[in-house]
Amino acid sequence: MFEEMAKKSAGWLKEVGEESSVVLSTRIRLARNIAGFNFPNSADKETREKLLEYFDSAVGKSEFLGQGNFYRTEEIDRTNSSFLVERHLISPTMLDNLDGSGVFIAPSEKVSIMVNEEDHLRIQAITTGLEMDRTMELAAQFDNEVGRLLEYDYDSDFGFLTACPTNVGTGLRASVLIHLPGLVLTREIEKIIRKVTKMGLAVRGFYGEGTDVMGNLFQVSNQTTLGQSESDILEAIERVTRIIINDEAAARSRLEEEAFDQICDKIWRAYGILKHARVLSSEEVMNLLSAVRLGLAINVIKTLSIETINDILLLSQPAHLMKYYGEDMDADRRDIVRAEMVREKLA
Amino acid sequence: MFEEMAKKSAGWLKEVGEESSVVLSTRIRLARNIAGFNFPNSADKETREKLLEYFDSAVGKSEFLGQGNFYRTEEIDRTNSSFLVERHLISPTMLDNLDGSGVFIAPSEKVSIMVNEEDHLRIQAITTGLEMDRTMELAAQFDNEVGRLLEYDYDSDFGFLTACPTNVGTGLRASVLIHLPGLVLTREIEKIIRKVTKMGLAVRGFYGEGTDVMGNLFQVSNQTTLGQSESDILEAIERVTRIIINDEAAARSRLEEEAFDQICDKIWRAYGILKHARVLSSEEVMNLLSAVRLGLAINVIKTLSIETINDILLLSQPAHLMKYYGEDMDADRRDIVRAEMVREKLA
What we know:
homodimer; eight-stranded antiparallel sheet; globular
């Protein structure tokens, strides 16, 4: 299962997008529910099953959706479902509660639809770089097609009805994954987080929280949607992201001016360790890749592509590693095989 | 001064000797004093000067000694005298008290004679690897020639008279510089040190003491000489060194069996950092080279020679680095230039 997928990079990591020296990806998620069905949390097994079949038959009726694949989560074993989480195709929440749910994956892998997660449907689109409009268009394309075939729970006052009140309205959550080594190294990150929070958006470590944020990767997202239009939300996130990009660029310039040798040293040591280590945890790879990614961005490393870095980031994750080598492995074995994979990719 | 010398490796590091996977070098030092002169510590300036001239004229009379060079320490500036210490041609003690002393250096650099250090003469021979006999022969060759020309202070009961009573008798101190990463990693080093001390010999960190020993380099030497013959001393050190070599080999085998991946990881990371870092202190280079040296010894690294490692070890030292690049540098600048030199040597 997913063997072909495991051999290639994720759709949203394959290209180079706008502002890619700071922004890894833009993600848009639309929460949708189907009229006449209880929300998944309060639905019995039978209702959940009926909803799955209802969605499946809609996919069958659509030439457009028919190009993708729909999987019942019962068919997916633990490694494969972790694989989908690592690939950002399903949510970690879904991993904890796989019963009676499913996932539709578009051929490009840029769009997936989770069925019976917190809402009946969560349509998600991801693209590389800072691409709010393009990502929204992509999500809307699938939203329109599904909405044509199934009747959404929609209230003319409130908008789309959702299981959690924070999603009512547009059902839209947009997020941007950004790499902020400059702000972390200059210790300005906390100040930025406070500033962005005041603007009503959230900034969080993408892997880990507080001082344990790994790989200096952060996510900017909206908190609520009610009373805001889609374009309000997208514009707010884009505006704030551009502010953060400028702050990050200023921090990087300052580091280059004031501590160039030390930054180069950090970057090249990270590269040297990745290129030579025999045992590597996924956390360490994430942190080392952060330095190497910075090296590319400030033109200190010139012989490596961002695609290679993204590829390693993706493949370093436990389930990806096991799928890539077609082998079940414990954590110790994975650390050794991960180091092999990294050396191979950097060779 | 010493410009030609700075361009090449030290004589005692150029070759590969016996047991070179553990033993870096063997050093023999003979303390000799000249009849009719006070010991340097209690000699006035005039006496010290007279002794220097006396030695210098002896060198002038000998075709054999005449091939070397004799330097008054007044002629040698701070960088150059540090350079000689780093090269093991003069002692750190001499560096602190340069007035009215001198050093004779043989063309091979394997033999030097310090004049007016603690004793009137300290004849020192160093060779690569574990080579007690060969090193003793080399020292004796110079000792005999100097003894032919100058009258040594010798007592038929006590033997050679020396400034410090621990040297009376043969005046011989022999030492072996050994690399013990296996015993350090398996935490057996303290046990070995106690064992060797019980046998009447000393084992000490060569750079630093206790847990601060850098580069896992230790020195085994005799403590006293009175009442022992030259061959007793040399045999004792060789015997104990061979015991330590066996212990070290056993520790390395155990590490290879029980933690091969971790050891390889440590070795290759060290190599990767050396090959890529942009800022390196001499202490860090010493510690990283220790791992790489182990890598060569256990055949994990195959594309590097021990000569290159020794070369880097020597050139990493502050005065060597400044002489090599012909430039005065502060510590920060040295750390950057040192990293350049290491990358160049490993390229």
